[in-house]
Amino acid sequence: MSITMRDVARAANVSVATVSHVINDKPGARIGDDARRRVLDAVAELGYRPNALAKTLSQGGSRFIGLVADAIATTPFAGQIIHGAQDEAWRHGYVLLVANTEGNTAAENDAIAMMLEHQVRGILYSTWYHREIEVPALLKQTETVLVNCYSEDDAYPAVVPDEEQGGRTATEELIAAGHRRIAMVNTTTPSPAQTGRLAGYASALAAAGIDYDSSLVFEAESAQEGGYAIAPAVIASGAEGVFCHNDRVAMGLYDGLRERGLRIPQDMAVMGFDNQDVIAAHLRPPLSTVALPHYEIGAAGVRTLLGLETITGSDRLLVTCPPVVRASL
């Protein structure tokens, strides 16, 4: 049975981070003599040895990059983050080690410790939707890039979708289709997507010389049921077109409009967001939307880790959300 850092930490009654500091003789690490002795005793008693492959790789530089994710490996469209990171890593001669933790803290710490044992070049830490996170302490031991998320103090480089640009692009597509009275159905959940997409909507209207009208901005649950429930209010507003927070909301709105005899796009144009292909491409008519660039976010995360993309200061690398125009405008 292979002995891991976690086994040593449990035997010595210390954290995995402390074990890593002692084994790697990390400069500047503040570790008491008693804790250091317990770790070394546990190492000797358990017969712990750093992974032989990692030792071999470390002599010439590791060719591994780690990716720790909360759920994206099991989320179809967000799984493109892994695809993009894997392709970009391979392009530069690296292999991607992927751990999907399903939000389990113990599993997450185990995964990070395992990657540290393999002396990875660095770790991408990713979430399945764009949000602020608390960065796991173990990530301080290696180069880390946050992917599709960011830390409160922006202490780590982060690669995220440009939500404001995406909202602006969605609204511009409706304007380009000839619409002036444009509603927005936003989410009720506080998030970068909620504030960013609304700001983009307002920006596009202003650039086109259209006054912002708060009575045309609605909030709904960010699911099909939310879009269906808000349909009567959107119709009553007299809107010619509507920008929905996501494709699921748009799908529900489709049902609500049809039940009331309205045609898409003849009576109301509809724009989504996310480009969930299983939804957007298969609605009738197919839904125009803005894509979340998950593949490019993953690829840009690897380039940032390797120093091929530069993020200055506390800035985040914003990745463009492109329009996908179909038949609903």
TrEMBL record:
Kindly give the CDD domains that the UniProt entry links to this protein: HTH_LacI (cd01392), PBP1_sucrose_transcription_regulator (cd06288)
PROSITE patterns this protein is in?
HTH_LACI_1, HTH_LACI_2
List residues traversing the bilayer.
none
Q: Name one GO molecular function term.
A: DNA binding
Q: Which Pfam families match?
A: LacI (PF00356), Peripla_BP_3 (PF13377)
InterPro entries cross-referenced by the UniProt entry: HTH_LacI, LacI/GalR-like_sensor, Lambda_DNA-bd_dom_sf, Peripla_BP_I
What name appears for this protein in its UniProt entry? LacI family DNA-binding transcriptional regulator
Q: What is the lineage of its organism?
A: Bacteria, Bacillati, Actinomycetota, Actinomycetes, Micrococcales
